[in-house]
Amino acid sequence: MDVALVFLFLVALFVVFTLFVLPIIFSLQALGSLFVYPRQLAAMFGNRILRRNHALEHATIAVLMEREPGRRFNGFSTEEGFFVQGVRSLEEVDGAAREALRRLRAGERGLAVHRNCGTTIVAANLLAAVFFLAALGAGLYLGGAWLYLLMVAGLALAFALRVPLSLLLQRFVTTDADLSHAEVGWVEPARPQDLQGGLLGLLLAASTVRVRVFHVDPDAVEVVRGDETVLR
After folding, report:
1. Residues 163 and 68 in one domain
2. From what superkingdom does this record's organism come (predicted)?
3. Helix, strand or coil for residue 188?
């Protein structure tokens, strides 16, 4: 009997935490994203080289997934190129990157956006923060009893709209599908220090490659102040 009561208490505690506490925690956490993500998005929008590498990263992963549906890949971009995780060989990524570049140049701009991009997390948090502020204002106006219901409704709406907003952000802010002045240089194994370092970086590096990308667009690169290079 005591065991059953403890079990019921734990179940009730879990339900209360899930239904009441967790939405509040997530909403407050999302609120903090308003102080971080807009600045990051603005910085990425201003870096044309990074946006183009990001587009080529997405397109390369899309080509890899077309060749072997069901495989999972992750990636992230830098100003020197991009990384792809979950690969088996340098050759498969080299071929996919060159095909992706060719298809982007041919006009397949849809390859530059991906619904599983990390931008989707950014979109979800921004939407949740905006809807939380709206719920807070409406709740104060309508009465405190409405606040929780409006907050949960806002979270549900943010979850539903996160992918459409992510695709819009990718299309106009975080990627640039104009790769007419870009070339795939070479593909090389990733180093642990390129990832997270330590044991985790060593494990990730075993299935991660780095694709070097070179840009020759005079409108995207400007050398100023001695040895510093400004990418725009």
Report:
1. no
2. Bacteria
3. strand
Residue 208's H or E segment, with its range, is strand 208-215
For 66-108, give the DSSP string.
Answer: HHSTT---EEEE-SSEEEEES-S-HHHHHHHHHHHHHHHHTT-
DSSP 129: H
Sequence-distant (6+) residues with CB within 8 A of 164 are none
> Are residues 149 and 202 part of one domain?
no
- Determine the structural domain holding residue 208 and report its residue range: 48-113+175-218
Spatial separation of the C-alpha atoms in residues 56 and 32, rounded to whole Å? 31
Evaluate if pTM is beyond 0.85. Answer: no
* pLDDT tens column, 93-133: 999 999 999 999 999 999 999 988 999 999 999 999 999 89
38 and 140 part of one domain: yes
**172-188 residues labelled b (16+ CB within 10 A) or e (exposed):** eebbbbbbeebebeebe
